[in-house]
Amino acid sequence: MDIIVIIALLAVPAVFAVIVGSVLLIQAFRRPKLLPEEVALACAWVFMVGSLVWLGAFLSNSILLGFGKPWTWLAAAHFAFAGFGAITVTSLSCRLVAQPFWLKVIRSILFLHPLAYLVTAAGILGYPYCDELGAMCYETIFILQLLAVLLGSSDCVITGPGALLVLSLSVPVVTLIPALAWAFENPLLDLGEMVRYHGMTNAIGHVGLGLLALSMIRPKSHSPVCHGLG
């Protein structure tokens, strides 16, 4: 595909992502209390821009940071779902957690997300022990996130949309098992199977179902509403 066409196709969603992220960041600072989950909700859109960059490399059959097909496509998907999607789910899940201890736990996860992402990326680039550390970080993130919502939420999370959210938060706890095996060089699945059973399952089961459930629950921010903010 011609590079000009690719730029034209991806420019609009990239600008949209920048605008949405900027608006959310402004809203976060306009709230009476600056909360990490509201800032993270805005910053997650940076990963969407990154996803579009990698998607552009894939569509143009280009090499980016030494990686070509299919790694450029896998990187685009990872930026979109492990980056933007997972951080957005965690940020919105923070709004559900009322118990102080578990609220601190799930807020700490917001800082672990980008760290785990960078460590995993370092592992892909060949830095020793980063694959293992990144996979373990992600498994820890998803276990703690699930526990925080289950044990720290003031609302019922076992019926209706809450149950759907719990299901979505449970998905990566399971799908990280083959990722851990892959990281420790004892793979249970080949690359194609990892895409299907790890990648697609997380994209649909964790991010997709999670955002659907949260859109139905519509959790309110812990910071009081200001000028019509949610």
TrEMBL record:
Keywords: Membrane, Transmembrane, Transmembrane helix. Pfam families: YndJ. It comes from the Bacteria. The chain crosses the membrane at residues 6-27, 39-59, 71-97, 109-127, 133-151, 163-184, 196-214. InterPro entries: YndJ-like. This is Histidine kinase N-terminal 7TM region domain-containing protein.
